Amino acid sequence: MTADQLSEVFGALADPTRRAILLRLTEGDANVGELAAPFRVSQPAISRHLKVLERAGLISRSRRATARLSHLEAEPLRDATAWLDRYRAYWDESYERLDALLAALQRENVVDRPPPRKGQERSR
Amino acid sequence: MGTTKITALPGSPQVTIEREFDAPRDLVFRAHMDPELLVQWLGPRRLTMRVERYDVRDGGTYRYIHSGEDGTEHGFHGVFHGDPSPDGAVQTFEYEGYPGHVSLDTAVFEDGGAKTLVRINSVFQSAEDRDGMYAAGAEEGMNEGYERLDELLARLMAPVA
After folding, report:
1. Contacts of A99 in chain B (CB under 8 A)
2. Nearest by CB: A85 against B28, B132, B144
3. How far are the Cα atoms of A86, B16, B135 from residue B142, in angstroms, in the given order?
4. Are the Cβ atoms of A91 and B135 closer than 8 angstroms?
5. pLDDT tens, position by position, B7-66
6. Euclidean distance between CA atoms B97 and B113, whole angstroms
């Protein structure tokens, strides 16, 4: 996924109505009337939101008889949140290591507190 | 042991991190500023960290490298702005695998007696930069496994954690 596609996905996700539409679609495909029902907005407004979601690749739309069904596409969402998973994994693991280091340093300090090294003293 | 709270609104260039530690503020601050301590905790365990320079003062520069067993290296560098103190440590940060996309990071160490709350505010030049930063590290092979889709959605629905 390119940075442009990714920003399209994030742009689409920036709107709470569109996020609510995606959440509804996790329960199954739906037509525009069903998607508009929980909101105080018109069907054309919902249709505009669906176009944004479709352009971002977050949904696909198909025709069944006269109804146009929206279907959730999971892959762009995974790509969009993958960076956050990596970020979280990095800091979670780092901070677990820091917990252990801080505990070890405090144990050392209780037994034998070393004199402050040059450059470690700070005026506060 | 604390849990790490990370907040990243969709479409925003900012990430905030909050984490509490069972240690007094001066020690937590020292663990962030003393390179001998920093190499013992920053980054994933499977990577070795070495510090090329870490000049903690106004205008001082730093560079460190995470290297994997297969020899791949990931360098990071930046500049300290203002003399870092527990009240605020401000630095620029750049991943050399994604050059030109610099973030401005502010770390604050809140005194809670025997505990310390670390807050980091990281602002990139754009939302795309923020998201691309860790996407660029993808080839590193972090296989964290995708969570279920509804968990992803839940996170997106409640970005103001």
Report:
1. 1-2, 21-22
2. B144
3. 7, 22, 11
4. no
5. 887 778 898 999 999 999 999 999 999 999 999 999 888 889 999 999 999 999 999 999
6. 39
Quick count: other Cβ atoms within 10 Å of Cβ B119? Answer: 14
What is the residue whose two structure tokens read 């973030």?
B103
Specify which of B34-43, B82-91, B151-160 reaches the highest per-range mean pLDDT.
B82-91
**Token couple for B92:** 């620029």
Tell me the chain A residues in contact with residue B127 when contact means C-beta distances shorter than 8 Å: 7, 10
A18-71 pLDDT, tens digit per residue, is: 888 988 888 789 999 999 988 888 999 999 999 999 999 999 998 876 778 888
| Angle at alpha carbon of residue A74, lines to A85 and B160, rounded to 5° | 50
ipTM score for this prediction: 0.77
Q: Of A75-89, B21-35, B129-143, where does mean pLDDT reach its minimum?
A: B129-143
Strand order in the sheet with A67-72: A30-31, A67-72, A59-64
Identity of the amino acid at B147: E
Burial of B108 per CB tally in 10 Å (0-12, 13-18, 19+): middle
Which residues on adjacent β-strands are paired with residue B100? Answer: none
Asked if residue B101 lies in contact with residue B124, where contact means CB atoms within 8 angstroms, the answer is yes
Interchain contact A15–B (C-beta under 8 A): no
A 77-96 residues inside an 8 A Cβ radius of B: 77-96
